[in-house]
Design brief:
Distance between the termini: 27 Å
CATH class of the largest domain: Alpha Beta
Number of domains: 3
CATH topology of the largest domain: UDP-N-acetylmuramoyl-L-alanine:D-glutamate ligase
Strand order of the largest sheet: 9-10-8-11-12-13-14-15-16
Helix content: 25-40%
Number of strands: 22
Radius of gyration: 24 Å
Length: 484
Amino acid sequence: MIWTAQQVITAVGGKALNNKGGNKGTEAGGNTAIHGIAIDSRATQKGDLFIALKGKTHDGNRFTGDAIKQGAVAIMVAKDSASPPKTALAIAVDEPMAGLERLGLAARMRHQGTRIAITGSIGKTGTRMLVATALGAYGKTHFSHGNLNNHIGVPLSLARMPEDAQFGVFEAGMDHAGELAPISHLIAPHIAIITAIADSHSSNFSGLDAIAMAKAEIFSAIKGGIAFINADDDFAELLAEEAAKAGAARILRFGYATDADYQIVSTRRNASGIDIEAKIRGDTYNFSLGMTAAHWALSAMMALGVVDALGLPLQPALAALAKAQDLPGRGAVRAVRVKTAKTAINITLIDDSYNANPASMRGALHHLASMPNKNRRVAILGDMLELDAPEAKHQALADAVKAAGVALLITTGKYMRHLSDALSDAPIESYHADDHHEALRLAESHLKNGDVVLVKASNGIHLNRLVEAWQTPPRARNGDSHVA
C-alpha cells in the first residue's frame, strides 16, 4: 500500500462523492488501501487509484468504467464531470491534473530518503536504470518507469513512491526552456545529474549553449545538494558555474577526462557485456557491466559516483552493475528469428528504436561496429526529429555509417533520404522506404541469415513496429497515459 484513500483526499483537497469500493465500515472509503496510481485505464491494476486526466485527444472521464473493470478501487475526477460510476470510491477535485501534482508533492514532502534527478540530451533512461540498480543493493529504491519524465510523468512517478523508500530516482526531460525548473522543484533532489549536452530538440533552441542552460535548470532546487556533470562535455564549466550559482554543496565530475572524480580509463567488450577500468577519487577499480554498448560505461560511472557521494561502500553496487541488462528500445541485443517470404532466418537485433539524435545515432552505429560478427552489419535508420538544419545533420551521418562497416542500409523518412543520397557512391547496398511498413517489407526481403541488425529512429517514425513484428510474444507498447 502506498496511500489510503483518506490520505489522498487530504493531499489533493478532494471530496469523496460516495462510499463505494472501500473497506466495510469505513467512512467514505477512508481506509481503502491504494497500491498504485494509474492514468491509463488499459494499464490499471487491481488496487489502483485511477486519475482521469483530460488531454488534447482523450478525456480520462470516458475511461473510468474501464479502469474500475481493470481493478481500480478509487477514481479521481473533476467535480464538474458527469456522474462517476458508483462501483468504486470517487474523489472529486477542481482539476485532476492539479490533483496529481498535489499528490506528487505530498509524496515528496513525506519522503525521508534520498532523491536523485537525472536529465541530459542522451542517456537519461539508461543512467536512471543503472543508478536505481546500484542503489537497490543498499535499500528500497523507487524509480520512474517508461518515459515518465515530463510535467505529467514526474508527479505521477512521485505519487507512486512508497513512503518508506530509501531512495527515489527520477528522470526529467524537456524540449523547451523553462520546463525543467518546476520539475526540479517538485522533485527537490538531493543529487542532480546532467548526462551530456547534445543536439536534441535543437529546433526549439538557438544553439547548444541554450540547450545547456535549459538542462542546467535541473540544479535550480539543488541548494545544499550534489551536482554531477560530464567532464568530457564542452559545456562542463558552464554547467559547473550554474550548479554553483544554484547553491550546490559539491560539484562532481564523471567521464574519460583525467580531471574527472569518477574516471573511465578503458572499456573492453566481453561475452556478456563490457569490462571497465576506472579511477574513483584516484583509486583503480576493475569491474564488469552487463550491458553491451560502450557508452553505458558513462552511466555506470554516474551510478558509482552517486553511491560513493552518499558514503556507501562500492562493492554491493559493483556486484549489482555486473547483473544489469540492456534496455528494450535503447540498445538491447538479442537473437531474433525473422520470417521472410521464402524462409525463416536468424539475426542478431540491436533494438535502439526508442529515440534518436545525432549523438545517440553515432553511438548506436559505434555499437553496431563493435559487435563480434563474421556476417553482415545492417542498419535500419529513420528520421531524427526536432532538429534544426535536419537535412545537413542526417547527411553528416554518412561517415559514421561507413565507419561501422554497414553492408545493407535501409532508411525511412524525408530527412534520412539525404543520408541515403550521401552514400550513393559507397559500396553499400541501400534502399529508402516511405514509411515503417515499407521498411519492414524491405528488411524481410533483403536480410540474410546471421545478419547483425541495428534499428534506430525517433519515436515518431515508428521503427519500433519492426521490433514488435519480430518479437514473440509481441512487446507491449510503451503507453502510460490516455492524454499523451
